[in-house]
Amino acid sequence: MGGAPARRTPADYAVSGRRAVRVTLVAAAGFYLFRYGLDRPVAATYALFASVALGGLARIPGTGRQRAATVLRLLPVCWLLVVVGTLLSVRTWSAVVGMLAVGFALAFAAVGGPRPAGAAPGLQLLYILPSFPPYAPGTLAERLIGTSTGLALFIAAEALVLPEPSPPPYRARAAHAARTAAHCATLLGAPPYTLTGPDIRVAWETSWSLRPLVVPEAERPAGPGVRDRALAHTGLATRTLLSRLAHLPVPPDGQPGCEVTAVLRAVARLATATADCLGTGPSPVAPYEELVTARAQLSALSAGPVPAGHPATGTARAPDLPPAVLRRHAAVLEIADAALAMATAADLAVRGRHAAVEVPQGRFWYAGTWAPILWWHRLRGHAGRRSVFFQNAVRIALALTAARLVAGVDTLPHGFWATLATLTLTRTTMDETWHTIRLALVGTLAGALVTAGALSLAGTHTAVYAVVLPVWMLFAFTVGPVKGVGWAQGLFTVLVALVFAQLAPPTWRLAEVRVLDVLVGSAIGAVFGLLAWPRGAHDELRHAAAELLRRAAEIVVATGASVAGGGAVAAPSGVPGSLQRAVVLAESAYAQFQSEPTPFGGAARRPVPRTVDWQATLMAGHHTLWGSQRLLAPPLTGLGRVAAETVSALADRVAGRMLLISAALDPGADTPTGRIPLIDPARVGPVAEPPGAPRLYYATVSWLDSLMTDLTRIARGGPEPGQGPRTP
Length: 728
Known about the structure:
By secondary structure, this protein is mainly alpha-helical. The protein is built from 24 helices and no strands.
């Protein structure tokens, strides 16, 4: 029975063993209490399957206490599923319609984050069990009692039995990254005004630690609420800040200027205060206002004429400063903006709508929005065929509906097992589904042979099954998750036989029925795996990333034209726009892409660069949004003819490069097939600086240069998962 991972370690068995002990204790206690203590076989069945559903089938991330808290919040949902499943089982057509609606809703709930996604399979099982005959609404109270008892015991066991060490939460990771940023800013604000190689390496490693790929699922801020959105925003802003600090050029004359030094020192103090805020400290209001003031002084210094009485009066103005100095000023102003965004997001993450730091609109559109509306935005954003969440929900809902229809129309014996097989064996790609089914069938056949032999030898001696059940359950839930799907299906085949042998007189034909049901469920899973988006997220990620770059190109061109023309264009505010939605879809596709194997024997249908830094694509989308909102904040002043032409030309060049990379990621039928350089050969150095250009010019050029850096990373490819970050 294959399916074993390439490498198994004692730690893997230790993790599955702890979970197996808890599930076995709960399932056996609930089952024996009702089956032999109270003679309530219905309650015994529901007590056992409730604990198996949420403890064995579900994959709720986190520690035992975190899983216990999740299941406690899901108790009303569990009760509702049992009630609805019981009432709709009166007719096959009503059970089928209910399976379609409930199956889609539970699978689509994955948009709410890793915990709803991990709980969905277990919740599906809690609905599948009562939706099959017999139609017995008179046993509803007994079903609810069994379910409630099993879940209550499961919650207690998860919280108290064999507790697990907690990984550092995302807030602690973000706080550590903020302290690293404070250290880097302190070094840049003092002689020799630069970072050493080890300092840059630490900055990039710390930034890498905030990537969702390396953060445990339970700690990822992926929910639609204000605090989760703000915490994810904190991570993005902190990563941007670290990147900007690592790339800050050395002062051209060896002296950074007192205004630049003041900004960097204020950034260091704000980063330290932000780290404290993410722990148990107060809101970073005073350091935030200090950085706002220091940033305004540097901005006025670089902007041109200085009003009388301004703190920068008497200092050199923009036309008097050399271009290299103005470019560095623009880079320092971007560092300040990233630090301000980090502090605002961190305060929102800790205090929600009670944040004390001033929250600007646009970038933080969600700050004053109520939770139901944020959920609506999340659901609406994924309610389309381009969302992998929507695709997965449609696939599993149709497969479960077909399984329920076949079981009802053909009166399939133990049709519950066929539907359960469909649920557990359907994957997001056809390759993975077929591979899983082959292993599952081999495992089920082996388990059926063991079952037939055991039932023939033990016969109707129920005491034998009662003694063997907990031992086998402990073994199955320890070995199955580590050895793979083949072992899991084989061991589970014997397990269900041991359970049902204590509920009704057993015969060896129970093993035959189990094989038939798994075969039917596997066939249904294979059909819908082939018909409904058989390549999973592999194609969808390419399309989503290409769409993101196309939307970003539109914004780059529009922003460049607005800055060049000096138009009073307000930054977008309110609900997120098309680029924000493209970023969300690309992020979800990338998250699923990480868990999928190479498609169809490793051969893609379309030519795609062999290595693509998908994270750089996502960051390019965020940097486009943030930079555009910052540059278009009114009032906008004219750049002058030469500077305006330079900005427009550079914006067009960046947008064109975005379109070229998007075409390479997701080529159309009329896309040229010739080899086109994805890295702009003309961008080998800074553009010629127009004389007398104002600060807005240098801020815009700095933003476009950072986008070009992102595009270069996309085209060259990034580090493979597990290899760690690359130094600049």
